[in-house]
Design goal:
The chain is of the alpha/beta class and 339 residues long. It has a six-stranded antiparallel beta sheet.
Length: 339
């Protein structure tokens, strides 16, 4: 059987086992999230060997040339060596400008790029990986366009098992320096031929972040089709950015903001709120006659994303027009040290 050498320890790979799964099985802490090649949190460096083409195809050519690959997609049939990258090898240095509440458990994190000339290009709706001073890595969607605003905006909710969010909510402060790498993800607006197709954006919790960015980008590019953004929470006080979205609706005739709540909190936090979960409200309001040409963007918890994707496909949406990024709540181990 092939073997993996990591931090001077060697482990046997099981048949059809990835490098990531082998290291996790043997108690090694390595950053990861989706295990599907999308989040790129499990980026590693091949040591004295070449990674497979399949494992490298998910990342940028410039990183491939420097020996990087994804551990979750690397299934070796020969002995290999693996090392975690250090963050300063390929990341952008950023610092916290502010952390402000959006609701009782969600904050807006604003970050500045220390050297703007080092900032990589991304499309609003994509996500990046943030690495805090302790080396903890976590992927988050960017909620704005850096090229317009010259800062980065993230919407982050506190989670019970989130090591990164625990640090952010309890220890982080303005001026703290982090590192960022990316971008990744295929959930963004693209319309080179300037078609006027309808757009449905549906999300729960901080799944609003990429949807907010996509909607703003589509409107900025002059999209002429109807854009409907559905955002859901358990109660109305779980929603946020309500005023900003209402203002977007007031200033664009083709943009529609539909807030949803599963339960009545007894507080009139949002006007014109729809009762029920997002799936129910979308089902009630969407135009099934135009679904075949509608672009659909889904973001939020995995159960919501997968269920909503199936629901809207069965109603008539084309699978190639459904874009989604499920958010996973998972603890991730430290990556290479910061400087």
């Amino acid at each position: 059987m092939a073997k993996v050498t990591f931090k001077n320890q060697t482990y046997e790979l099981n048949q059809y086992e990835s490098v990531l799964d082998c290291l996790l099985r043997n108690g090694q802490h390595i950053p990861y999230a989706c295990k599907a090649g999308m989040c790129q949190a499990c980026l590693v460096k091949a040591v004295d060997c070449d990674a497979t083409q399949e494992s490298k195809k998910w990342i940028k050519e410039s990183l491939q040339q420097r020996g990087y690959t994804l551990a979750c997609q690397w299934f070796p049939d020969t002995d290999v060596g693996v090392a975690l990258p250090t963050v300063d090898e390929f990341s952008v240095k950023v610092s916290i400008r502010s952390i402000e509440p959006l609701n009782k458990r969600t904050v807006r994190l604003i970050m500045d790029v220390s050297e703007p000339g080092t900032m990589f290009h991304y499309i609003p709706g994509q996500y990046v990986t943030l690495i805090n001073p302790k080396g903890i890595a976590r992927s988050y969607s960017v909620a704005n366009n850096f090229e317009d605003d010259q800062y980065l905006e993230f919407h982050i909710s506190e989670t019970r098992q989130g090591i990164f969010t625990g640090w952010l909510f309890n220890e982080a402060s303005p001026g703290d320096v982090l590192h960022m790498r990316g971008p990744a993800g295929h959930c963004f607006y693209s319309n080179g031929s300037k078609e006027s197709f309808p757009i449905i954006l549906a999300g729960t919790g901080t799944g609003l972040a990429p949807l907010y960015a996509i909607a703003r980008d589509a409107l900025k590019q002059g999209h002429q089709g109807e854009i409907s953004l559905y955002h859901g929470g358990r109660t109305s006080d779980h929603l946020y950015c309500v005023e900003e979205l209402a203002a977007m609706q007031d200033s664009h005739d083709n943009f529609h903001y539909i807030p949803c709540a599963r339960e009545d909190s007894g507080e009139a936090v949002v006007d014109n709120i729809r009762s029920g979960n997002v799936e129910k409200v979308v089902d009630e309001l969407m135009d099934t006659a135009s679904l075949a040409t509608t672009r659909v963007y889904l973001c939020g918890a995995p159960d919501f994303v997968h269920g909503m994707r199936k629901q809207i496909f069965l109603k008539g949406a084309s699978s190639r027009n459904i874009y989604c990024d499920p958010f996973l709540e998972r603890s991730v181990a430290p990556t290479g040290g910061t400087k």
